[in-house]
Amino acid sequence: MTVDTRATPASSPPPPRRGWGSRLVSGLGQLLVTVGVVLLLFVVYEVYVTDLFGQRKQAAATEAIDKQWAEQAPATDTVVVQDPAQLVTDPRQRTPQYSTLTGEGFAKLYVPAFGADYTFTVVEGTDADDLYIGPGHYADSQLPGQPGNFAVAGHRVSKGAPFNDLGLLNSCDAVVVETQDDWFVYRVLPMEEEKAGWATAAGTRPQCAAVTPLGSPYDTVAGREITVPSDYAQVLPVPHVASTEVPADAQRLITLTTCHPQFSDAERMIIHGVLTASYSKSAGFLPPELSES
């Protein structure tokens, strides 16, 4: 009989039991990884997926407004009004009137400084659903070309992000608004730090010919302001003045609002502009301001 003389290996000792502290750390690590993945997916959804959805909604709004405008023949003449106060002497003898429905487009917004392809259809309303479509008009503010304050809100990140680059605007940059019958050209007001030496410095640029720091009651209004989200006085007929009444001698302003800083809603960035020219629409005509860079 053959005897197996090979040593029998000793059985492996059982693994040491992990203490509660080790198990807690391991579980916490797994939880943090899971939370991190969920947050990453949420960021991807908020920044990229909603952006795609917003672009589709904006495209649909633009298609609808183009169809609506195509049903009305444009005017045959082009009327240039350099002084906003002269809008009332327009040959049509009217202050622009509009019929708007919440969530539907009624105007288009162009910012030449952002490139020739920058255009967004502006919808009525500033609820979440409205701003998902594109820039939204504060329903209680005035409309394009009217005395007072045409105020528009827009997302800075996600959902189409129409106002992502709003902080890049400089004084006198053109903001052009197209309606069914008219073109309105606004220009960004002087920044607060530019006001004192405006006439001999920034104000000497060619595009600033019709722009100047505004007097009372607009003397506290600047081209760019950073404020708190609850500061709705920025979109009143006279910004900073707590009244919904439009003064008889009111300026014709535009106000653009968005979140600040980027990726945060802790504050609001405000851009104020003043109407410097208007054109009656006619076939084939585009305002020369659209070609500015």
Automatic annotation (TrEMBL):
Q: Recorded GO terms, molecular function?
A: hydrolase activity
Positions annotated as active site in the UniProt record: 155 (proton donor/acceptor), 259 (acyl-thioester intermediate)
Tell me the keywords, alphabetical order.
Answer: Hydrolase, Membrane, Transmembrane, Transmembrane helix
Please list every transmembrane segment annotated in the UniProt record, as residue ranges.
24-48
Q: State if Membrane is listed as a keyword.
A: yes
InterPro entries per record: Sortase, Sortase_Class_E, Sortase_dom-sf, Sortase_E
Q: Which CDD domains does its entry note?
A: Sortase_E
The protein's name in its UniProt record: Class E sortase
Q: Which organism is it from?
A: Nakamurella flava
